[in-house]
Design a protein that fits this description.
- The chain has two domains: about 30 residues, no CATH class; about 100 residues, GMP Synthetase, Chain A, domain 3.
- About 30% of the residues lie in helices and about 35% in strands.
- It is built from three helices and six strands, in the order E-E-E-H-E-E-H-H-E.
- The strands form two sheets. The protein has a three-stranded antiparallel β-sheet with strand order 1-2-3, with no helix packed on it. It has a three-stranded mixed β-sheet with strand order 4-5-6, covered by helices on one side.
- This is OsmC family protein.
- InterPro entries: KH_dom-like_a/b, OsmC/Ohr_fam, OsmC/Ohrsf.
């Protein structure tokens, strides 16, 4: 896996990131840090990548468990250390899983497997942050 990050110019703190798979994502800093708030912050990208990683796992595991899953969202709320390096210290994941006749134990197992075994991003972040999760099931 690889990526290339390019600074977009001297009048700001925006960067373009090109992934090894050929996708481009922009990032920017906060105005108080010289950015212009044109794109997500790099640490927001870490958080959203982690959410995408674990949501992917939960959907895949639920499908393999023959659950009639029709939707999955995960909302992450994170806290960071006050001093540099401002690593994540706490992250809470709240999953809302939608489907027909979903088994709560199976969904909880999928979330636990993601956090304990499959989601590389959350497993890395668990080295500095306390990770917690909750979930709700919505019939639909």
């Amino acid at each position: 896996m690889e990526c290339k990050i390019s600074w977009m110019g001297k009048d700001g703190m925006a960067f373009a990131a090109e992934t090894g798979s050929g996708h481009i994502v922009n990032m920017d800093g906060a105005p108080e840090g010289g950015g212009r708030n044109l794109a997500p912050r790099p640490m927001e990208m870490v958080l959203l990548g982690t959410g995408g990683c674990t949501a992917y796992d939960v959907v895949m595991i639920a499908k393999k468990s023959r659950q009639d899953i029709r939707g999955c969202t995960v909302q992450l709320k994170a806290e960071r250390a006050p001093e540099d390096p401002k690593v994540f210290t706490k992250i809470h994941f709240h999953f809302t899983v939608t489907g027909h006749d979903l088994n709560p134990a199976t969904i909880e197992r999928a979330i636990n497997l993601s956090h304990d075994k499959y989601c590389s991003a959350s497993i890395m972040l668990a080295k500095t942050a306390e990770l917690t999760h909750s979930f709700e099931i919505v019939e639909g």
